[in-house]
Amino acid sequence: MVKIGEINLGEFPLLLAPMEDVSDPPFRALCKKYGADVMYTEFISSEGLIRDATKSVQKLDIFEYERPVGIQIFGADVESMKKATELCEKVNPDIIDINYGCPVKKVACKGAGAGILQDIPKMVSMTKAIVDSTHLPVTVKTRLGWDDNSKYIVETAERLQDVGIQAISIHGRTRSQMYKGEADWTLISEVKNNPRMHIPVFGNGDIDSPQKAVEYREKYGVDGIMIGRASIGNPWFFNQVKHFMKHGYEAAKPTLAERVKVVLEHLDFSIKWKGDRVGIVEMRRHYANYFKGIPNFKPIRNQLVTLDDKEELYAVIKDITTKFDVALV
Predict the structure, then answer these.
(1) CA 203 distance to own-chain centroid
(2) In this structure, is the dihedral angle defined by the CA atoms of residues 278, 279, 280 and 283, taken in order, positive or negative?
(3) Is the model's pLDDT at 151 over the cut of 60?
(4) Is the same domain home to 194 and 301?
(5) Looking at residues 28-47, what average pLDDT do you find?
(6) What angle do CA 48, 53, 59 make, to 5 degrees?
(7) Domain tally for the chain?
(8) Catalytic residue among 31, 88, 102, 109
(9) What tens digit of pLDDT does each residue of 251-265 get?
(10) Are residues 240 and 270 in the same domain?
(11) 102 belongs to the catalytic site
């Protein structure tokens, strides 16, 4: 049984990766419904939180049905990260997660996210400060290293464990790789198989099919898998992985009618949580993924990403099942 602190996650948990502008409450609700075991919020700026920035504070919204749910924070200043942790505690999450993996320039080049991989001693001391400042279990999401010459993840994971983290999720790329090339799980496996490690080690990167999830579980021995991009427009992915693990063959893919039903559910929650205008606009990034594989869908997609009127948008979505009679890939 895999546990983060006292939180029981089952035999082989599937975690929803924190994805900026994706893993918000509407998306998390669907992933939970379709099999995700652990939720993480979008990453939240510690500086934004302590300055009461609206966008950062809104990301603290968590719901009972999501549990166990972790709030992920990032930042380069230890005191700001400690204050942000205190603010996170007030909304009663199950886990505090530290982002040491975001590779984007505006984050990493300020020494936050994956930027801290250039200063492992600071990474360790910051982690200790956060662990010591909260009663909640602290976890870390990180990468193999800054570049090919600094893949210190085996030693780093050990040091982070020694200062008190309760689990670590590792993306199998360096910061320099961004999201290019193939994720290298061999070093993730080395962390897991290090005899000194006793906390859960979760692998992340390139899990884009149920078959690969099973293959990597058996090949690399991780305690669970964190799933990101494969779930965008496909919240069913978690249950598909679980079905394949249990039965050894693929579950039936969702029908077009099922996809339309979930899109409407996603849109409803998006509007309810963000308001009509923002809810409609921010939902636009999801349509291409939800309806991937439908021939000649471009005219409809163009409508979905340009319509501002809520009733017109709902009408177009509901009409998709009558316009297209196709088996989705």
Answers:
(1) 12
(2) positive
(3) yes
(4) no
(5) 95
(6) 80
(7) 2
(8) 102
(9) 999 999 999 999 999
(10) no
(11) yes
Q: What tens digit of pLDDT does each residue of 259-294 get?
A: 999 999 999 999 999 999 999 999 999 999 999 988
Per-residue three-class SS string for the chain: CCEECCEECCCCCEEECCCCCCCCHHHHHHHHHCCCCEEECCCEEHHHHHCCCHHHHHCCCCCHHHCCEEEEEECCCHHHHHHHHHHHHCCCCCEEEEEECCCCHHHHCCCCHHHHHHCHHHHHHHHHHHHHHCCCCEEEEEECCCCCCCCCHHHHHHHHHHCCCCEEEEECCCCCCCCCCCCCCHHHHHHHHCCCCCCCEEEECCCCCHHHHHHHHHHHCCCEEEECHHHCCCCCHHHHHHHHHHHCCCCCCCCHHHHHHHHHHHHHHHHHHHCHHHHHHHHHHHHHHHCCCCCCCHHHHHHHCCCCCHHHHHHHHHHHHHHCCCCCC
Token pair 């464990």 is at which residue? Answer: 161
328 occurs within a structural domain:
no
Express each pLDDT in 194-209 by its tens digit. Answer: 999 999 999 999 999 9
Q: Is the pLDDT of residue 329 over 60?
A: no
pLDDT at 112: 84
Judgement on whether residues 232 and 308 belong to the same structural domain of the protein: no
Q: Do 131 and 266 reside in the same domain of the chain? A: no
Residue reference for tokens 């409450």: 25
Q: What is the pLDDT of residue 325?
A: 62
Residues 95 and 201 in one domain: yes
Banded model confidence at residue 327, pLDDT cuts 50, 70, 90: very low
Compute the residue count for the chain: 329
